[in-house]
Write a structure and sequence with these properties.
There is one protein chain. The chain has a 7-stranded mixed beta sheet, sandwiched between helices. It has a single domain, classed as Vaccinia Virus protein VP39 (Rossmann fold, 3-Layer(aba) Sandwich). The longest helix has 17 residues. Helix 1 runs antiparallel to helix 3, helix 2 packs parallel to helix 3 and helix 6 runs parallel beside helix 7. Helix content is 34%, strand content 15%. It contains 7 helices and 7 strands; from the N terminus they run H-H-E-H-E-H-E-H-E-H-E-H-E-E. The chain is globular. With 235 residues, it is an alpha/beta fold. Strand 2, helix 4 and strand 3 form a beta-alpha-beta unit. The structure holds S-adenosylmethionine (SAM).
């Protein structure tokens, strides 16, 4: 898939296409955990969210900025003076990114603290792509941020910790902040347990079962699942 192949609804309108395509190109050359086709699908649904002008886009789990730049590209496709992407990450890595785990990258360990720290690399990616006006970093634990959050989001992308505790905390903390008609997007949803871990799939099923979300199956791609918020209120 290339930057000109947009899943349904993702074509940038005239006027902003050039900047959007450049940001999308930057996203696709940034290392991360979204395969190209899923990155394009995220971009496509984010364009719809940005076009709704119903609030900011929020991502949980930024890592090196790949998904962040997909979301920024979507904002650029619609209106650069509009809402921003709030990119939430403590930048100390998920469990599976720590030393001894398969996704560990020793080059991201801060020699001063001995802890993993992806913030500088993320910031450099956003700056190099020219997306600083579109993206605001929120550096901290996502559940803590969610508990103190009060702005309805047009889209929440959940791609933080994939263990049961962080994943459920993200889902429980952030799903309620999606505006009616807005999108809750999960990454790494696998119905088949041999393909990947259970928590994102279980949270996705819980959201559907709650009646507060319906699925936009056409917008999902690979392990990306797109849910749309209904008007059923939270209890
Ligand atoms: C799978 S990576 C995100 C990948 C990214 N979306 C991409 O496109 O490549 C998960 C990220 O979530 C962050 N994370 C994990 N648990 C977190 C928590 N409780 N609060 C904030 N960030 C967290 C990690 O630091 C890591 O950068």
């Amino acid at each position: 898939m290339t930057a000109t192949d947009f899943p349904a609804g993702g074509q940038p309108p005239d006027g902003h296409a050039e900047r959007s395509a450049a940001l999308l190109g930057a996203a696709l050359t940034t290392r991360g955990f979204l395969p190209d086709d899923e990155a394009m699908a995220l971009y496509a649904v984010a364009v719809r969210a940005a076009a709704s002008a119903c609030g900011p886009l929020v991502e949980i789990g930024a890592y090196l900025g790949r998904s962040t730049l997909c979301l920024a590209a979507a904002l650029a496709a619609v209106d650069t003076a509009g809402p921003v992407v709030y990119s939430v990450d403590h930048h100390h890595g998920s469990e599976e990114m720590q030393a001894g785990w398969p996704d560990h990258d020793p080059s991201l360990v801060d020699p001063g603290t001995g802890r993993m720290d992806s913030l500088a690399a993320w910031r450099e990616a956003i700056e190099r792509a020219g997306a600083e006006d579109l993206v605001v970093a929120v550096v901290g634990d996502s559940a803590r941020v969610a508990a103190n959050w009060s702005t309805r989001a047009a889209l929440v992308f959940v791609d933080g910790g994939h263990g049961a505790v962080p994943c459920w905390a993200d889902y429980r903390g952030w799903a309620r902040h999606v505006v009616v008609g807005g999108f809750l997007v999960f990454h790494d949803v696998f119905a088949d347990p041999t393909q990947g871990g259970r928590p994102p799939y279980e949270c996705y099923l819980d959201a559907l079962g709650s009646g507060r979300f319906t699925e936009d199956a056409a917008a999902g791609w690979g392990s990306l699942r797109v849910l749309v918020r209904t008007s059923l209120p939270w209890g």
